[in-house]
Amino acid sequence: MSSWPIAAVQTDSRLGDVPHNLSLVRSRLREAASRGARLVIFPECMLSGYAFGSRAEAWPHAESLPGPSINTLAADCRELGVWTAVGLLERGQGGELYNACALVGASGLVASYRKAHLPFLGVDRFATPGDRPFAVHDLGGLRVGMLICYDDSFPEAARCLMLLDADLILLPTNWPSGAAAVAKFLVPARALENHVYYAAVNRVGEEGGFRFIGRSRLVGPDGETLATADHDKETVLYASVDPAAARAKHLVRIPGAYELHRLADRRPDLYGPVCDSKLRPPSPRRE
Questions:
Q1: Which helix (H) or strand (E) holds 80?
Q2: Which of 188, 276, 183 has the alpha carbon at shortest distance from 226?
Q3: Which of 180, 186, 102, 96 is nearest to 144 (CA)?
Q4: What mean pLDDT is predicted for residues 211-232?
Q5: In a domain, 53, yes or no
Q6: Cα Rg for the chain, rounded, in angstroms?
Q7: What is the pLDDT of residue 282?
Q8: Sheet hosting strand 83-91, strand order edge to edge
Q9: Residue 168 covered by a domain
Q10: Alpha carbon 189 to chain centroid distance?
Q11: Active-site residues: which are they?
Q12: How far is CA 8 from CA 33, 74, 194, 228, 236, in A?
């Protein structure tokens, strides 16, 4: 398939009500599939909710992966011939609590991602930092990488996925009030600097004293917006992803006079400080 229709579902969810949230996901998944979407993306912590007041409050709403909700969604994906990415809380085998995103297809759980960068906000105050390397997954011609919300504020994360040959980066989010600049500036910048497609999918509604701002955005590898919700209402965004466009890192404006190469022009020999852990200042928040 040369072009992949995708959908971003900007919606609300209920805190701690997995059955309701799963039912909503299944309904929106079917709706998007009926309009031709092959990959349907939902917000961060869509199944569980986000603004928990403690780890003990959040834990009963976390699931192992794969688990009951993912198995149900896999059956839907099999029936509809689609893939989906949905945010949830994951129970680790050692009792860890991860803010995770599950990528699901007809065969079941394709892959999962655990949020690496945790803000002091909502359930992330009690979550375990992600412990897996960044990875890219081939859906049969479309190469997809996953990040979650605050990860987008760290350019190294998206750059890793680009270097692993991602065509599309999924960013399920729970942006609250105050995060509008992230949607407006950071998402297009990450797409442009890495020459990849970006799907930033935020939630709406109010939960635990937070108001979520929507403003989901689908962006092309040139940084231009393909579809956007410049509001905090429920909606579904649609766009098409052309993997060949994302893979064309050599940009020729004027042959022999004005050319850019997003991979070949890099200077990793100068980037040592980025990976020097000694330069990391101590955190004043979580001692």
A1: helix 68-80
A2: 188
A3: 102
A4: 97
A5: yes
A6: 18
A7: 64
A8: 108-114, 97-105, 83-91, 39-41, 4-10, 235-241
A9: yes
A10: 15
A11: 44, 115, 149
A12: 12, 18, 21, 10, 6
Report, as an integer, the average pLDDT of 197-203.
Answer: 98
DSSP track, 91-102: E-TTS-EEEEEE
**CA pair distance 261, 195, nearest whole angstrom:** 10
Q: What is the mean pLDDT of residues 261-284?
A: 85
Element (H, E) at 261: strand 258-261
Task: Kindly state whether residue 120 falls inside one of the protein's structural domains.
Answer: yes
Residue 180: both structure tokens together: 């509008």
DSSP 63: B
Q: Are 74 and 107 in contact (CB under 8 A)?
A: yes
Q: Which domain holds residue 158?
A: 4-249
CATH of the domain at 204: 3.60.110.10
CA distance 14 to 5: 28
Please give the pLDDT value at position 2. Answer: 81
What's the pLDDT score for residue 48?
A: 98
Please check the confidence at residue 283 and state whether its pLDDT lies above 90: no
For 160, the token pair is 């890793």
Q: Is residue 148 part of a domain?
A: yes
- At 264, list the tokens: 């070949």
Q: What is the dihedral of CA 81, 102, 172, 28, to 10 degrees?
A: 40
Q: pLDDT of 89-146, one tens digit each?
A: 999 999 999 999 999 999 999 999 999 999 999 999 999 999 999 999 999 999 999 9
Which residue type sits at 198?
Y
Asked if the model's pLDDT at residue 285 lies above 70, the reply is no
DSSP code at position 176: B
Task: Provide mean pLDDT across the span 26-41.
Answer: 98
User: Which residues contact residue 241 at a Cβ distance below 8 angstroms, ignoring those fewer than 6 apart?
Assistant: 3, 4, 5, 6, 142, 167, 168, 197
Q: What is the spatial distance between Cα 87 and Cα 46, in angstroms, rounded to a whole number? A: 5
Cβ contact 205:13 at 8 Å: yes
> Among residues 61, 84, 70, which one has the least CA distance to residue 207?
61
How many domains are there within the chain? 1
